[in-house]
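Please, structure for the following, as tokens.
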Amino acid sequence: MITHVVMWKFKPGTEAEQERFLTGLKGLFGVIPEIKTQEVHRSAVPGSEYDAILISRFDSLEALNTYKVDPRHVAVSDICKSIREIRSAFDYEEA
């Protein structure tokens, strides 16, 4: 099992786009079959280093890579690229 963690810091003044992005991201679960579990959260602490986080799980690195190039994911990701200041990602394998 591969866990995929991504965190974002968004540009100020992009609140509407942030909601569109996070709603779109949540909407991928159950639509893209490679996603086995998914959590999307906003920070509970104003002014945190990051504003939102994605934690998703995939059966394999191949499944994760299939998800990354899925046109539905790419469309949602494109929204984020225009509103993010920082993006950090980390993938790890669970035993």
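Strands lie at 2-10, 37-42, 52-58, 84-93. Helices lie at 15-26, 61-69, 71-83.
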